[in-house]
């Protein structure tokens, strides 16, 4: 009787990997979870995002803010990857106190910090609450309704502070988009007023495209404009050169001047050559050029022989 070797799968000692090869689609379907406990657990959580990943390091940011915030219980921070992080608090009062002190910045770049929400949006968190001064608006138009319209146009308007000296508003601005620093207020009678918006506690950002994730020297918009300006200048210089070349009389003048300068330049070259070239041949040439006459050759006289008398 022939004996057959029993496989590990038949013995129950291993998995039969040859028959279990699922398709790799990188997409799975799962049922809705019962996450009521997770919702309660994260109700006292703040989610944050850095604006400049190359400068702001999350591993050093977490201990910094853990010590910076003066709370009754220290929050527990963790790195969520891709520039995101979270802080879990023990008390509601501590969490609210931290939110009231916004906006924050780290390594001179802004930090986005929001209370956790059960959302799957990739742009969460994105809001930064700023106190913004409204300048350029005439004093007789300092009304809360006007300020509210301006604030609602640039973000989520929260409140306004109007005094006899200044006007400012607190607005939650999308930190992933360019800032708005100018706004035009229009009235039904056709009047228009241009206002400047000054963001308080705003740190490093691009002064060209007004984004928060890079500086002017790294701005692609500024580089493109500089490249286009350089190309236009080179094109204009090329047109000027072509025009000057085709002007009437320019060729004749150039040839005449070159003809006049020909002998002069030749003499100059000869002089410079004679000045710095010291040789016997050169000295003889120089002497003859100055009119120097060489001495006559001495004649050899034949000896006198007396003639015979006839």
Automatic annotation (TrEMBL):
<dbReference type="Pfam" id="PF14111">
    <property type="entry name" value="DUF4283"/>
</dbReference>
<protein>
    <recommendedName>
        <fullName>DUF4283 domain-containing protein</fullName>
    </recommendedName>
</protein>
<dbReference type="InterPro" id="IPR025558">
    <property type="entry name" value="DUF4283"/>
</dbReference>
<feature type="domain" description="DUF4283">
    <location>
        <begin position="41"/>
        <end position="122"/>
    </location>
</feature>
<feature type="region of interest" description="Disordered">
    <location>
        <begin position="231"/>
        <end position="310"/>
    </location>
</feature>
<dbReference type="InterPro" id="IPR040256">
    <property type="entry name" value="At4g02000-like"/>
</dbReference>
<feature type="compositionally biased region" description="Polar residues">
    <location>
        <begin position="270"/>
        <end position="281"/>
    </location>
</feature>
């Amino acid at each position: 009787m022939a004996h057959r070797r029993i496989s590990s799968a038949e013995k129950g000692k291993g998995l039969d990997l040859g028959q279990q090869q699922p398709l790799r689609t990188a997409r799975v379907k799962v049922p809705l979870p019962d996450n009521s406990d997770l919702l309660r657990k994260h109700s006292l959580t703040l989610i944050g995002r850095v604006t400049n990943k190359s400068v702001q390091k999350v591993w050093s940011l977490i201990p910094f803010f853990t010590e910076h915030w003066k709370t009754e219980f220290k929050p527990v921070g963790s790195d969520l990857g891709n520039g995101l992080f979270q802080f879990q608090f023990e008390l509601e009062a501590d969490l609210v106190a931290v939110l009231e002190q916004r906006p924050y910045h780290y390594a001179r770049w802004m930090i986005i910090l929001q209370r956790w929400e059960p959302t799957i949006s990739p742009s969460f968190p994105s809001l930064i609450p700023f106190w913004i001064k409204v300048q350029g608006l005439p004093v007789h138009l300092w009304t809360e309704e006007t300020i509210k319209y301006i604030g609602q146009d640039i973000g989520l308007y929260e409140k306004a502070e109007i005094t006899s000296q200044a006007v400012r508003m607190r607005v939650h601005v999308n930190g992933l988009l360019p800032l708005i620093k100018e706004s035009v207020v229009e009235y039904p009678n056709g009047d228009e007023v241009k206002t400047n918006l000054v963001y308080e506690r705003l740190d490093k950002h691009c002064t060209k495209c007004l984004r928060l994730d890079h500086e002017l020297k790294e701005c692609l918009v500024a580089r493109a404009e500089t490249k286009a300006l350089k190309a236009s200048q080179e094109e204009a210089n090329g047109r000027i050169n072509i025009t000057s070349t085709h002007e009437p009389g320019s060729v004749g003048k150039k040839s005449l001047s070159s003809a006049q300068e020909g002998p002069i330049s030749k003499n100059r070259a000869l002089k410079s050559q004679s000045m710095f070239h010291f040789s016997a041949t050169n000295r003889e040439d120089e002497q003859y050029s100055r009119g120097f006459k060489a001495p006559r050759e001495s004649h050899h006289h034949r000896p006198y022989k007396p003639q015979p008398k006839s």
